[in-house]
Amino acid sequence: MKTTLLYIALVLLSVNLTGQNLLGYKAGRIEKYISRNHTDLVREENSRNDHYKYLKYTDGTAGTSTVYFFLSEQNKCNRIKSMHVHGLRDEVQKELDRMYVKTGENTWTDRKKGRDATIKLVNEEWFFSVTIEPVKK
Known about the structure:
With 137 residues, the protein is α+β, with helices and mostly antiparallel strands. The chain has three helices and eight strands, in the order H-H-E-E-E-E-H-E-E-E-E. It has helices at residues 2-15, 27-37, 89-99; strands spanning 42-43, 53-58, 65-71, 77-84, 101-104, 107-112, 115-123, 128-134. Strands 1-2-3-4-8-7-6-5 form an eight-stranded antiparallel β-sheet, covered by helices on one side.
């Protein structure tokens, strides 16, 4: 019973970050935000990619969610992608509906400090993803 409650708590905490629009935040500000607001998320520092600069967070032992914050040359977040197990889809969709303006099936928009963003939920075979990126003009 305690294990089940712990699992549910971890899932709910990690879902809350799914739709968080941190576009434009510098890496250090993202790290502070996560450490203060999402103590359930663990930074994966072993990840390495020669093409993209990013921060990667997972929900630790639950293994239900992973969040990437892609960074520009100036170290600012220019895209966010989170991936989740299908069992979280309803919760994530409710969160997105609550936080943003729905513009179509599985798409939302956000206007934050003059930075318009598009949020897309995409179903994949083994998981689903949520991508937040600036509106392309």
